[in-house]
Design a protein that fits this description.
Shape: globular
Structural class: alpha/beta
Strand content: 25-35%
Order of helices and strands: HHEHEHEEHEHEE
Number of helices: 6
Number of strands: 7
Distance between the termini: 38 Å
Radius of gyration: 15 Å
Strand order of the largest sheet: 3-2-1-4-5-7-6
CATH topology of one domain: Rossmann fold
Oligomer: single chain
């Protein structure tokens, strides 16, 4: 099934509200710098939450159907957010740099070589000193259902190491989905661009 076909309905990660972890990061003042980029934004709930908090925010996804839905939500809510169909492996093509970047479930969809390409593009799209907030499924998530590759802490450390990035922290977290009663096992990584 293609990504567009998944967005014909409601995929399990589209919970109709922002991920609670990102809401908490904003409420605690950890995620606070603008402009912000939401990579793999889906139907835009995280980006729309940031817009409602006063962020200058851009959401990108390569799935046109998801971006159509995000734009409709923004219009219905009177939210000032930009949504673009764009490839996360060509972030330099946005021709803009960002102080904060959020990634809610995109990183874990990439294979090894794509992760390196993504990291390099992320570096080009971020301002020096900018911060990347990434949530991905961890290896603690059971493999008894088809889903994205699970990620380990060493994989995150290896990908976001100097000279381009410095890993500030990796913490256990939970993904809210329509498939999990208590959330899926995840890591929240906070990474600074060097």
């Amino acid at each position: 099934m293609s990504w567009d076909e998944m967005y014909e309905g409601t995929p399990p990660w589209d919970i109709g509200r922002p991920q609670p972890t990102f809401v908490q990061l904003v409420e605690k003042g950890i995620l606070r710098e603008s402009p912000a980029l939401d990579i793999g934004c889906g139907t835009g709930e995280n980006a729309l939450m940031l817009a409602a908090k006063g962020f200058d925010v851009t959401g990108v996804d390569f799935t046109a159907k998801a971006i159509e839905k995000a734009k409709r939500k923004a219009k219905a809510r009177g939210a000032k957010a930009t949504f673009l169909v764009h490839d996360a492996l060509d972030l330099a093509g946005l021709k803009k740099t960002f102080a904060s970047v959020i990634d809610s479930g995109l990183f874990h969809t990439f294979g090894d070589s794509e992760r390196i390409q993504y990291r390099d593009q992320l570096h080009k799209a971020m301002r020096p000193g900018g911060t990347y907030f990434m949530m991905c499924f961890s290896e603690k998530e059971p493999a008894d259902w088809d889903g994205p590759r699970r990620v380990t802490k060493p994989e995150i450390r290896k990908t976001f190491a100097p000279p381009k990035f410095r890993l500030r922290s990796i913490e256990d977290s939970k993904f809210a989905t329509t498939m999990h009663d208590d959330g899926g096992y995840a890591y929240l990584a906070i990474v600074d661009r060097l």
